[in-house]
Amino acid sequence: MVRLAEFEKTEREHLLNLPCPTYESTPFVAGITLSEARVALLSTAGLHRRSDKPFGVGESGYRLIPSDIAANDLVMSHISTNYDRSGFQQDLNMVLPIDRLKELADEGFIGGVARYHYSFMGATAPEHMEEEAKQLAAILKQEGVEVVLLIPV
After folding, report:
1. Does some domain include residue 61?
2. Which helix (H) or strand (E) holds 134?
3. Which of 2, 105, 117, 138 would staple 82 via disulfide (CB 3.0–4.6 Å)?
4. What's the rounded Cα separation, in Å, for the pair 73 and 9?
5. 61: pLDDT confidence band, cut at 50, 70 and 90?
């Protein structure tokens, strides 16, 4: 992983001063206890099944990842030259902690693991992903998912 200090000053300042979207309100919903909750994972690692279309630069869509997928059936098409993929290559759980989530379910810490998980392409402006995120939120609700663990990569 490249450290911020290694960038040229102009690039470093650009990255440090990226705009952060603001919203008119902050929704709040009282949730259920984790021991009753079905949990899904949402990663920004640009993960997809080998048979899926790879992510493109600035793409705002997401890819569906079945809960029972084998690690070697997942590909990371995160395209940043600053991104170190070695953690993913050694252990999928670095960017999609599916095995840890299953362990939490087995221990009764969470109510269950969602049937599907999702990945967006990181380094895409959040406002460009808003429409797809709203669509995905409706899908998650329909699937009975009460908690989504966000894994920013």
Report:
1. yes
2. helix 126-142
3. 2
4. 39
5. very high
**Does residue 2 lie within any of the structural domains?**
no
CA distance 65 to 77: 14
User: CA 47, CA 60: separation in Å to the nearest integer?
Assistant: 13
- pTM reported for the whole predicted model: 0.80
Length of the chain measured in residues: 153
**Single-letter residue type at 2:** V
Closest CA to 117 of 16, 43, 25: 43
Tokens 């999702």: give the residue: 118
pLDDT value, residue 80: 66
List the beta bridge partners of residue 114: none
Please compute the mean of the pLDDT values over residues 131-139 and round it to a whole number. Answer: 95
* Residue at 99 is within a domain: yes
Q: What per-residue confidence (pLDDT) applies to 108? A: 97
Q: How far apart are CA 74 and CA 82, in angstroms?
A: 21
Task: Judge whether 77 lies within some domain.
Answer: yes
pLDDT greater than 90 at residue 8: no
Q: How confident is the model at residue 125 (pLDDT cuts 50, 70, 90)?
A: confident
Residue 88's nearest CA partner among 80, 100, 78 is: 78
Q: Which domain holds residue 121?
A: 35-151
